[in-house]
Write a structure and sequence with these properties.
Chain A is α+β, with helices and mostly antiparallel strands. Chain A folds into 2 domains: about 5-55 and about 95-210, no CATH class; about 220-255 and about 275-345, no CATH class. Helix content of chain A is about 30%, strand content about 25%. By secondary structure, chain C is of the alpha/beta class. Chain C folds into 2 domains: about 10-100, Elongation Factor Tu (Ef-tu), domain 3 (Beta Barrel), CATH 2.40.30.10; about 115-235, Nucleotide-binding domain of ferredoxin-NADP reductase (FNR) module (Rossmann fold), CATH 3.40.50. Helix content of chain C is about 25%, strand content about 30%. The chains are: A alpha+beta, B alpha/beta, C alpha/beta. Chains A and C meet through strand 4, strand 5, helix 3, strand 11 and strand 12 of A and strand 4, helix 2 and strand 13 of C.
Chain lengths: ~350, ~325, ~280
């Protein structure tokens, strides 16, 4: 049975302050004009009535992280030999993210299938994932760019979260989703909320009703493959693309990375840092050959991966959580929904005999 | 926009001789436009120009060399076209320029700020100086002057400086209502505060390089120092030092070439005030060389030319 | 404890062989004797070899699993990492993450006639399988090797070629692109020489690796000779970083070259989207 608690709006910050004694707590607040998940600070205003500019992706998948620390030294036994000491550096401590949206939290489930698969476990990701708890805020307002309902989700979806918070007029109904989440709900600032469950369910229903009409994307995997070789299709949909990484870096489910060595004198580190398939360097081979030489090839991979290859590998799950940030943040206004629908509707021109 | 039909007609006439015409069409909501690539007659109908035509389409030109390209430009965009021509980054005979009198474009950040919370945008109407926005069932009235881009207030070139087809009546430059407040404020800061300012702003950079890729004058494209390993200028670490280093090199490469179109700042998903840095650089260039980028197709940007003696640089204190 | 897939085993270069002007071979052993003793791999699997401070790059282990005194990697100098590796000498320390990827279907090849067609550095992945088969000679039928390079000085493994030529249980053909003084073997492009040799497709498998243009015409030649798609095996190269199917760059549609490859039959390649 899920634990159901209620918190008054005014008690949110004191509660987060309590949580901050045991965990690193992140909550959305403004940094300039960007709304970001930043370390909780009692002095800072936290903003919960709108979606953040960035999803809380960095809390589990930092923009850059150290995989290996290495040091060069002279071998005292044989001074002509250089010794290298290389060791792993695993993240420690626990984190609570407050105010993630259902799409944000669900994004990590797309990571999980790849980073924690039967074949391989990424222990850096695992260490953070296990120790990062999401108190997710159901959405009360829907934006033009929202389409979580197209990808099997909804504005109150608890998937990937530990606690689901439903905004009510006087506070939030807090419902535990995971066991770890339940442990977060023991504060004296919280009161039993079971009596308000009906009201909260009604709010969720109302919001779900206000979202844009859904579209059937079940044909997307096959249809995207069918237009794979149609470069005119891809050149047209990518014409306005600037090949930057805004869409991927703001995407809660984009998980690609680079590995580079960075040195400083005799010391150095092997870094994992965000990388993106829109960059020409991403697949550039040392010989100069590039299997994805143009932005058309690269955008094809981005859309193809999310709506065709990933679902084909992972039981039909589309690797997009419908948050719409790629649409909002694209400096050229590329709308991924438009491309997917265009591929689904694409009919090859009839060939005259 | 009152010259829209005239522009469509003009494009319709020229299209048979062109591979593509780049303009704008409606975007994902009533508050956004998007670049629109017109290849076929039927694409022309979707063309829209107006206060949401924010994108500087000149950015696409170097990537389309070898094609016959038509481009619709605002006055500020035309300066980028001129700069690209000056540097032989595009061929004049391959480009057909469509100009129109621009009365200013919006700054999406200002609109977002003015509206406060977000929600579904149902409609947007602009009548004289008022913008009426339907947001989540409520109507919001904003004064156009409150949401126009800063660059529009001091715009000296509302009409394309170079064009093959110009629709409508040329208009006179706006009387400057506001100065470069942000630049003045910045210059009043002592050096260490300036550095602290940039450290704070650059801290949230996610290194997506939208600033670089949206810049019409940033033409190294796939061979950028940001990712180069040999030479290894920058580390891939999430550090302010590396992010700031990139912006500085970027700004230096643009000194005297940047036309202050503001695409770097507009493209930045983290709203980092990158234009401020470019304005500061350009101000220095103007003081040293009395030069303004992208105005005269025949001119040579000062840092692309060499003189034995510069009038305003007394390096040996002679 | 779960294995850290990104932490390389430290290894020592035992021997460096200069093969050609731009190819060097490194014989390495893992520093941890237990790890070296327990190391096992299959012919065709690759490793991420790193020089700390420069980075990692992918190379096939070209020594066979039947000879475990050392692991051998041949490195053609093309970029940052390979240039750095070329500066290393015996005794130097490197990192190795191996084995990664799939292997040649050597079990399915038992009892069959084998045709190897290698061009340039593409001989490296063939070498591991060739030596493995020679070490298990009774399991396989007739083995033919066609190895070509631009000129004699571009030919790697020159020190073992004579042995291969001398063997009764291996038909070795060497070819170079243009006549060269003193050259006693074939002259001509690999696909043309292959058509001359005309190995029978009957109960055969052809394994080919080399530069893209050579692969393209070799596949055409094999088709002409009657080899079916299922009888042709090749091994691909892609830019790789993680090597374990996570970092996301080496995919061709749903297939990750680092996990599902690098070895593919031509029949499998035809099922993949066209993005080599």
């Amino acid at each position: 049975m899920a634990k159901v608690q209620f918190i008054k709006s005014a008690d949110v910050k004191p509660w987060l302050a309590e949580l901050a004694k045991e965990h690193r707590v992140f909550a959305p607040s403004y940094d300039g004009e960007a709304l970001l998940f930043r370390p909780f600070d009692l002095e800072q205003e936290i903003i919960l009535d709108r979606a953040a500019t960035m999803p809380p992706k960095k809390t589990v998948f930092p923009q850059s992280e150290k995989l290996v620390d290495f040091t060069y030294s002279k071998d005292p036994e044989n001074l002509s030999r250089v010794k290298i000491d290389a060791r792993e550096t695993l993240p420690e401590g626990s984190t609570v993210v407050f105010g993630s949206r259902p799409c944000d939290a669900r994004g990590f489930t797309m990571f999980d299938r790849v980073y924690l698969s039967d074949k391989n476990t990424d222990i850096y990701y695992q260490a953070r994932r296990k120790n990062t708890l999401f108190i997710t805020l159901a959405c009360r307002t829907i934006e033009n760019t929202c389409f979580c309902n197209w990808v099997d989700s909804d504005p109150c979806d608890p998937t990937g979260s530990d606690v689901l918070a439903i905004p009510m007029n006087d506070g939030y109904l807090l419902e535990s989703v995971s066991e770890q989440g339940e442990k977060l709900l023991n504060s004296k600032l919280l009161a039993d909320g079971s009596s308000r469950k009906v009201e909260a369910d009604k709010i969720c229903q109302e919001i779900a009703g206000s979202i844009n009409n859904t579209k059937d994307l079940s044909q997307a995997p096959a249809k995207l493959l069918a237009v794979f070789d149609n470069m005119q299709f891809w050149e047209e949909v990518s014409a306005k693309c600037l090949s930057c990484g805004a869409c991927t870096y703001l995407c809660p489910s984009c998980y690609c990375f680079n590995i580079t060595d960075e040195t400083n004198g005799m010391k150095g580190k092997r870094l994992r840092s965000w990388d993106n398939c829109m960059s020409a360097q991403f697949t550039m081979e040392a010989s100069g050959h590039n299997p994805r030489p143009t932005k058309a090839h690269r955008l094809k991979n981005r859309v193809g991966h999310k709506f065709s290859y990933y679902p084909t590998i992972h039981g039909g799950v589309i690797s997009c959580c419908g948050c719409g940030r790629c649409i909002k943040s694209c400096p050229a206004g590329i709308d991924i929904r438009e491309i997917v629908l265009k591929a689904i509707d694409f009919e090859p021109a009839a060939v005259e005999e | 926009m009152k010259y829209q039909q005239e522009l469509k007609d003009s494009i319709r006439k020229a299209l048979p001789g062109l591979d593509v015409v780049i303009a704008w069409s409606a975007g994902y909501d009533p508050l956004h436009a998007t670049p629109h690539f017109i290849r076929r007659e039927e694409d022309i109908d979707r063309l829209e120009i107006g206060p949401f035509s924010v994108h500087n389409l000149a950015t696409y030109l170097p990537g389309l060399r070898g094609k016959k390209v038509g481009i619709v430009v605002k006055g500020c965009d035309s300066r980028s076209v001129i700069e690209l021509l000056q540097e032989n980054l595009i061929n004049r005979e391959e480009v057909t320029i469509f100009g129109f009198p621009c009365t200013g474009v919006v700054d999406q950040t200002k609109i977002r700020k003015a509206l406060g919370h977000t929600g579904k945008v149902d409609f947007c109407q602009i009548a004289s100086q008022t913008v009426v926005i339907g947001l989540g069932g409520e109507e919001h009235k904003l004064r156009l002057s409150k949401v126009l881009a800063d660059k529009c207030f001091s715009c000296q070139y509302p009409n394309a400086l170079i064009s093959d087809h110009f629709v409508g009546e040329k208009i006179s430059p706006s009387v400057q209502t506001e100065g470069d407040d942000d630049l003045e404020a910045f210059e009043k800061m002592p050096m260490d505060e300036r550095f602290a300012f940039w450290q704070k702003e650059m801290d949230r950079c996610i290194r997506c390089y939208a600033c670089r890729n949206a810049c019409p004058m940033c033409v190294c494209r796939d061979h950028c120092l940001a990712e180069s390993r040999d030479p290894h200028w920058l580390s891939q670490e999430d550090s302010v030092r590396d992010k700031w280093m990139f912006q500085l090199i970027h700004a230096y490469h643009l000194a005297g070439r940047c036309t202050e179109c503001g695409e770097c700042q507009r493209a930045c998903p983290m709203d980092i005030p990158l234009l401020l840095l470019k304005k500061k650089m350009n101000k220095e260039i103007k003081e040293l060389f009395q030069y303004e980028a992208g105005v005269d197709p025949e001119a040579t940007p000062p840092l692309l030319s060499f003189k034995m003696e510069e009038e305003n640089i007394n390096e040996r204190e002679w | 404890m779960t294995k850290n897939i990104y932490l390389p085993e430290m290894a020592t270069i035992q021997e460096v062989i200069r093969e050609t002007h731009n190819i060097m071979t490194f014989r390495v052993t893992l520093n941890n004797p237990e790890a070296m003793k327990n190391f096992s791999f299959k012919p065709g699997q690759v490793g991420q070899v790193s020089s700390f401070g420069t980075g990692e790059a992918t190379f096939v282990i070209n020594s066979p699993p039947t000879r475990m005194d050392y692991l051998q990697f041949s490195v053609m100098r093309t970029g940052e990492v390979t240039s750095k590796l070329h500066s290393l000498k015996a005794g130097d320390q490197i990192g190795v993450r191996a084995p990664l990827g799939n292997s040649f279907p050597y079990e399915d090849m038992k009892g069959k006639d084998i045709v190897f067609v290698g061009g340039g550095i593409g001989m490296a992945p063939l070498r591991t399988l060739l030596l493995f088969m020679l070490d298990n000679r009774a399991d396989y039928g007739k083995i033919t090797l066609l190895y070509g390079a631009r000129s004699p000085v571009d030919m790697a493994y020159s020190y073992e070629l004579q042995d291969w030529l001398d063997r009764d249980d291996l038909d070795t053909y060497l070819t170079i692109d243009a006549p060269y003084e003193g050259w006693q073997h074939k002259v001509g492009l690999i696909p043309n020489v292959l058509l001359d040799i005309a190995p029978s497709p009957g109960n055969s498998v052809a394994i080919t690796c080399g530069p893209p243009i050579m692969i393209k015409f070799t596949l055409q030649a094999l088709e002409k000779l009657g080899f079916k798609d299922e009888q042709i095996v090749t091994t691909l190269e892609k830019r790789m970083k993680c090597g374990v199917g996570i970092c996301g760059r080496c995919n061709i549609g749903t297939s990750y070259v680092c996990m599902d490859g690098p070895v593919f039959t031509r029949a499998q390649l035809r099922q993949l989207p066209n993005e080599l």
